[in-house]
Amino acid sequence: MTFGSAQSAIGLYIHIGFESLLFDNDITLTTNTGLVANLSANADQQLLDGEAYFIGLYSDSAADAFTSVSFSSFPEDYYFNVDDITFAQMSSPPGAVSEPSSLILLSLALGGLIRLRKSTC
Question: How far is CA 44 from the centre of its chain?
Fold first, then answer.
């Protein structure tokens, strides 16, 4: 799968067509920048007909943004399909928020307290 612009995340569901036992590394996602996601979090589990397994990867580094992903599976006699492929670009970080100096806020608060105290006495 190739993208027109660099992406930083991809995820998809694998639906099993009939009862099948999946093992570590049976399903792999690999990006053109070298990121790899393997089926391993729930390894050696049996998925029943109609069940789905989610596999995905992301990077918060612009250097790892990818423009293509390959999906591979171990050559075995099981049937599956891929659904709900979702991908996302890294959003640029928000700009700095200007904040008043803490010292100025503290000074204003103290000044207000002193003034309040003088007006009540």
Answer: 24
Sequence ranges of the domains in the chain: 2-90
Please report, in angstroms and rounded to a whole number, the separation of the first and last CA atoms in the chain: 76
- From residue 77, how far is each of 16, 18, 56, 80, 107 by CA, in Å? 12, 11, 23, 10, 74
What is the distance between the alpha carbons of residues 36 and 29, in angstroms, rounded to a whole number?
6
Residue owning tokens 């207000």: 112
Using alpha carbons, list the distances in angstroms from residue 99 to 27, 46, 111. Answer: 48, 54, 20
pLDDT digits (tens, 9 = 90+) for 10-55: 988 887 766 666 666 777 888 999 888 876 655 555 666 667 778 8
pTM score over 0.70: no
- Residue 52 CA: distances (Å) to CA of 13, 58, 60, 92, 117: 6, 20, 26, 33, 67
